[in-house]
User: What shape does this take?
Amino acid sequence: MHEADFGVAGETAIVTGASQGIGRSIAETLAAGGANVGICSREMDRVGPVADEINDSDVDGEALAVECNVREREQVEAFVEEVVEEFGGLDIMVNNAGGEFVAPFEDISPNGFDSILDLNVMGTVHGMQVAGEHMREDGGGKIVNVASVNGQHPAPNESHYSTAKAGIIQLTETVATEWNDDGIRINCVAPGLIQTPGVAETLGIDSEDMPPRDQVDRRIGYGEDIADVVQFLVSPAAAFMTGETVTVKGVPRPGNSMQHDLGLQ
Ligand SMILES: CCCCCCC/C=C/C(=O)SCCNC(=O)CCNC(=O)[C@H](O)C(C)(C)COP(=O)(O)OP(=O)(O)OC[C@H]1O[C@@H](n2cnc3c(N)ncnc32)[C@H](O)[C@@H]1OP(=O)(O)O
Ligand SMILES: NC(=O)C1=CN([C@@H]2O[C@H](COP(=O)(O)OP(=O)(O)OC[C@H]3O[C@@H](n4cnc5c(N)ncnc54)[C@H](OP(=O)(O)O)[C@@H]3O)[C@@H](O)[C@H]2O)C=CC1
Assistant: This one.
């Protein structure tokens, strides 16, 4: 009998942008699955407590928090090095840190457009290249990049962000073909609207009374909806998947009454 293996126990993972939101959910989920997690954000005061919470809990995985801005190559190199030294290797890299502001195309300055490309695309490039070097030396690994449905479908006032997230999808597909022989699987997750502090800040959407996860319509997503798919993608169960983008958006946009109520379709 075949039994599906979604396990990550004993592996070492890095999750960027894990002081809150989707990244925090991914880190907590992987740690609960027994992986040791290196987590970062731009401020130790914000990411440190997440590591403390994991380490004070009864999950099997341990956490190490490091202050790191993913837009700075040297900081990413130092972050990855510290995690490799602490936990003795690197098996999983989740490039989650990202963000946006919402503005019409004509109002976005060159520097504004560049800041979103730099954070989302170059932040992912740094994470992939630095982690990839360690993984190649160790005989392989798994990388998951966090894109967005905005990289797949047009939406007004998201030109910079959609361009960046579409770039992440192409980056995933292209590098997956290059690093296959190194034993590195690279996949991408494209979330729909997920309830996070960043969404509350950027879009003003804070759905406090969330329906349960087993209800697919009339709700936006939980961080755990993305974390569970990330764990699948880095697990042995996804051994035959690389270069793929998995969309996680609940009921397809035209039918999701919650997203309609929020004025998003
Ligand atoms: C139906 C399904 C739909 C799903 C939609 C889901 C969408 C969710 C997307 C998410 O990513 S959620 C998480 C979002 N959270 C955040 O993005 C955090 C909040 N944002 C920020 O912190 C910042 O905007 C940034 C993205 C991190 C950029 O930071 P940076 O430090 O690089 O920016 P600044 O130095 O402040 O500015 C650089 C440049 O950008 C211009 N700019 C900034 N904000 C705006 C704006 N609102 N409108 C126009 N331009 C803006 C700013 O003026 C600077 O340009 P110059 O003035 O120097 O030319
Ligand atoms: N929420 C949603 O609906 C969707 C989100 N996404 C994507 O999912 C990812 C996470 O989004 P979400 O959880 O909503 O975002 P949040 O804004 O809630 O959290 C973003 C996280 O990234 C960290 N971060 C931001 N910039 C940097 C940086 N330069 N270096 C290191 N860390 C950084 C923040 O930490 P700190 O501020 O402490 O540095 C924070 O931990 C992003 O890539 C986003 O684009 C995609 C589709 C939909």
